[in-house]
Design brief:
It is a single chain. The chain is an alpha+beta fold. It folds into two domains: 6-46, Winged helix-like DNA-binding domain superfamily/Winged helix DNA-binding domain (Arc Repressor Mutant, subunit A, Orthogonal Bundle); 66-140, Lrp/AsnC effector binding domain/regulation of amino acid metabolism (RAM) domain (Alpha-Beta Plaits, 2-Layer Sandwich), CATH 3.30.70.920. The chain has five helices and four strands. It has a four-stranded antiparallel β-sheet with strand order 2-3-1-4. A hairpin with a 6-residue loop joins strand 2 (95-100) and strand 3 (107-113). The protein is elongated and about 55 Å long. It comes from Paracoccus tegillarcae. Keywords: DNA-binding, Transcription, Transcription regulation. Residues 4-65 form the HTH asnC-type domain. GO terms for molecular function: sequence-specific DNA binding.
């Protein structure tokens, strides 16, 4: 981030909030010519700072309104146990995120479901079969107070 200036930061901020903004509109908002803006965006992409462009879906409108956070404690910390768990959890379609944690749990999963019965299905079909799991605790999100995908730049 050392070679990113204030204009790059503004570009990144704007693109995080509206990834479909045209290059002309983006250039106008950061006071650059369209070609100079395009070069900067291309450099940010080439440097891996801009990783992807995605469409963020409304999970309620696509039938996945239930958000569940699952804390998982493994039976051991050997590389084989961690690797087997991580390989298996990657293929569960309902898991949006998996984080290796410090603290009480080894992993924290972010899971979406259509309702509690659907989560029970996900649990039976996938979560209960994950290798190396000693304990699992699930917490249902009652309401999302705040959510963003934009990183402060």
């Amino acid at each position: 981030m050392d070679d990113i200036d204030a204009i790059d930061r503004r570009i990144l901020d704007l693109l995080q909030r509206d990834g479909r903004i045209s290059n002309a509109d983006l250039a106008a908002k950061v006071n650059l010519s369209a070609s100079a803006c395009h070069r900067r965006v291309r450099r940010l992409e080439d440097d891996g700072i801009i990783r992807d462009y995605v469409a963020l879906l409304d999970r309620k409108r696509v039938g996945r309104p239930t958000m569940v956070f699952v804390e998982i404690t493994l039976s051991g910390q050997a590389d084989e146990v961690l690797d087997a768990f991580e390989k298996a959890v990657r293929v569960i379609p309902d898991v949006l995120e998996c984080h290796l944690m410090s603290g009480a749990a080894d992993y924290l999963l972010k899971v979406v479901a259509s309702d509690t019965e659907d989560f029970a299905r996900i649990h039976r079909q996938y979560l209960a079969k994950l290798p190396g799991v000693a304990q699992m605790h699930s917490s249902f999100a009652l309401r999302t107070v705040f959510r963003t995908t934009a990183l402060p730049v």
